[in-house]
Design goal:
Mean pLDDT: 97
Structural class: alpha+beta
Strand order of the largest sheet: 25-24-22-18-14-13-12-27-26
Helix content: 10-25%
Number of strands: 37
Low-confidence stretches: none
Strand content: 15-25%
Largest sheet: 9 strands, parallel
Length: about 650
């Protein structure tokens, strides 16, 4: 059962697609105050668990910390980070009362979940203008499914998007990409996608290609497709201010950029230098910006990743003026300032909250200050592309994912979890985010395998790839200046060939389970607690997940470990994909086990009475089509396989 409560005058985010009539009175759980903004308070029992919040830090159970929905360009994903790139305001309380809540509010929203007071859940925001949805059901998972039906079907990518992809910030020329493709193919390491970071553009201008580095881009795209490689270029939120640049000139003429209160265009610095932001909350501007993707679609591109769309701001015109004035005062009399004054000033230039109050959107003829709807920008940038693809490419699915997001964007694209680091702890963080993101509708998800920032190691990359085998988006991505981490650069590269090869052998299962989750409003990744709620030990496990309805994964995420401890809530069959191509099977009883897992092995557990389809080795998704497969697991088990052509839109 879903109940909708209306407070004040909410902004219509269009996150919810189901028509739910509002009810009067107070929610059955918790207390609400609207005297000074909005405040929801609920008294938790000691054993209550809190699930949800999508792309949030720390554990699957969110209890014991503070989280702030405020889409933030923050690459430092340390344990104290309270905000990340997405804002996903859905949670479930599981315990003495079990219920779900979605707070549809597009600005800064704080969840204090036993942080200030161990048994108090408190949700607060500045203005009492929001929708609150209370969801009750038979179980945690029933509540999730009701919510998923309420917000609409998850994005379905083309099947090639389930292939392995290589990326790096620093590939600048056609030869860079051809070289990477050649190395993967010559070393027979499976790959389907090459991602193009900002250097493919002409001076970082959206919807352009550097003609010196890519003299015949259309032919280059065609050449890559001839070897079954799809190029996936990045699109950033900021449009460069430059006379003669058609996208800028047209957006300026039509008034499609975000403006300041006086009606002039808001100007901020991002990768291209001074930029304007397209007003993607304005339907006309959103349609205009989405149609610009045709400039690359027409050259054969069939996948995109949207970035810098929190939106990220390096500094604004106003912020730069304030910094210059500060420096003048500092140089005149530095003694009046603290020793950290210059450092603090420099750090405050980027993504300064004051800048988000300096520009406006036009919505239904009204000016709306950006900070009031900040969390909707990335969502609507990706929506712009998704809506455009329905018209520009009606017969073909286009790969699309984003960095920043809000619930509702899940209908148009997936996400990757942003600028992580080559840290062992980030393998575990990657794992723990997966079910929370699925709860909020985001099924096509993944992290930068091996880590984006810092220098990876051979064992870290192999262990992370063994988790990435199961994530819909499987991409190795690294930052400029870090160690080169393409798989063929490490010794004994046959181990990488094998681990990534297992991904391709599992595509029949992974694609089938993804599609069933999307079409039936289910989760692909579930915590053990969702399936075994009466098992107190299973409810404590946060480093194992159920993937689909048949398997459980328990990746190794510790340096130098030769294996790990696992808890089985029921008898399962322990499967290891061995580097010689064979599959080792062993039945393990319910309980605790230590399982040995070598660096070049991929483990999984098949639930009792179930089996999964496993294909033959392949180097591309195209090779999988039509190939027969075997069933691995319990003899006689039935598996319902979903398959399609992987490209036709699913109605």
């Amino acid at each position: 059962m879903i109940q909708k409560y209306v407070f004040g005058t909410p902004f219509e985010t269009e996150a919810v697609v189901k028509d739910i009539p509002a009810v009067n009175g107070d929610p059955a759980y918790g207390c609400i105050s609207t005297e000074n903004g909005f405040r929801y308070t609920y008294r938790m029992d000691c054993e209550d668990k809190i699930y949800g919040l999508g792309e949030a830090n720390r554990g699957i159970n969110k209890r014991g910390f503070r989280y702030i929905s405020d889409c933030t360009d923050n690459p430092e994903h340390t344990e104290d980070a309270v905000s990340m790139y997405g804002a996903h305001n859905f949670l479930i309380v599981s315990g003495k009362d079990t219920f779900g809540m979605f707070i549809d509010y597009p600005s800064r929203l704080t969840f204090d979940i036993g942080y200030s007071e161990r048994n108090r859940l408190e949700i607060t925001c500045e203005e009492a203008n929001l929708y609150l949805y209370l969801i009750r059901g038979d179980s945690i998972y029933d509540i999730v499914k009701q919510f998923r039906r309420m917000i609409g079907r998850s994005y379905i990518p083309p099947k090639f998007a389930f292939g392995f992809g290589q990326s790096r910030w620093g590939y600048t020329t056609e030869e860079d990409f051809r070289s990477v493709a050649r190395e993967y193919r010559e070393n027979h390491i499976p790959m389907d996608l090459l991602y193009m970071d900002i250097d493919y553009m002409e001076r970082f201008k959206d919807f352009t290609v550097n003609k010196e580095s890519f003299p015949d881009f259309t032919q280059f795209v065609s050449d890559m497709k001839d070897v079954q490689i799809h190029l996936v270029p990045i699109i950033d939120a900021g449009v460069k201010v430059e006379k003669g640049y058609a996208v800028y000139e047209e957006g300026l003429e039509k008034g499609y950029f975000c403006k300041k209160e006086d009606g002039s265009e808001f100007t901020a610095a991002v990768w291209p230098g001074w930029t304007h932001f397209p007003d993607v909350l304005n339907p006309e501007a959103r349609e205009w910006f989405g149609n610009k993707y045709q400039l690359l679609l027409s050259q054969g591109i069939d996948g995109f990743w949207n970035d810098m769309n929190e939106p990220a701001i390096f500094y604004s015109e106003e912020g730069l003026c304030e910094a210059k004035e500060f420096m003048r005062e500092f140089l005149q009399d530095s003694e009046q300032f603290s020793p950290f004054a210059i450092t603090d000033m420099a750090q405050s230039l980027a993504n300064n909250p004051k800048d988000y109050k300096r520009f406006y959107h036009e919505v239904n003829g009204q000016k709306v200050r950006h900070d009031k709807v900040h969390n909707l920008f990335g969502y609507n940038m990706t929506r712009a592309a998704g809506e455009a693809f329905e018209k520009l490419s009606p017969d073909k699915r286009i790969l699309l994912f984003s960095r920043s997001s809000y619930i509702g964007m899940h209908r148009y694209g997936g996400i990757w979890t942003g600028d992580n680091k080559s840290w062992w702890s980030h393998i575990l963080l990657n794992l723990k985010m997966l079910p929370s993101l699925n709860m909020c509708g985001f099924l096509y998800v993944g992290a930068d395998l091996g880590g984006f920032g810092c220098d990876t190691t051979r064992d870290l990359l192999l262990r992370w790839l063994a988790l990435g085998v199961f994530t819909p988006l499987m991409r190795n991505h690294a930052a400029l200046g870090t160690r080169l981490q393409e798989c063929y650069r490490f010794e004994e590269l046959e181990d990488f060939r094998h681990v990534i090869g297992v991904r391709y052998r599992l595509i029949p299962y992974l694609y089938s389970e993804y599609m069933k989750a999307a079409l039936n409003d289910e989760m692909m990744f579930k915590p053990l607690a969702f399936e075994y709620p009466q098992d107190s030990m299973a409810c404590q496990v946060e480093d194992q997940l159920l993937v689909g309805n048949e398997i459980m994964i328990a990746p190794v995420y510790t340096q130098n470990a030769t294996g790990r401890y696992v808890y089985l809530p029921e008898e399962m069959k322990f499967i290891k994909f061995l580097p010689d191509g064979n599959i080792r099977e062993e039945i393990l009883e319910k309980g605790h086990h230590y399982v040995e897992i070598a660096l070049n092995e991929v483990p999984l557990f098949i639930r009792k009475g179930k089996s999964i389809p496993v294909g033959a080795a392949a180097e591309t998704i195209e090779e999988i089509s039509g190939v027969t497969f075997e069933y691995v697991g319990y003899p006689g088990a039935f598996y319902e396989l979903y398959d399609d052509d992987g490209i036709t839109p699913v109605k």
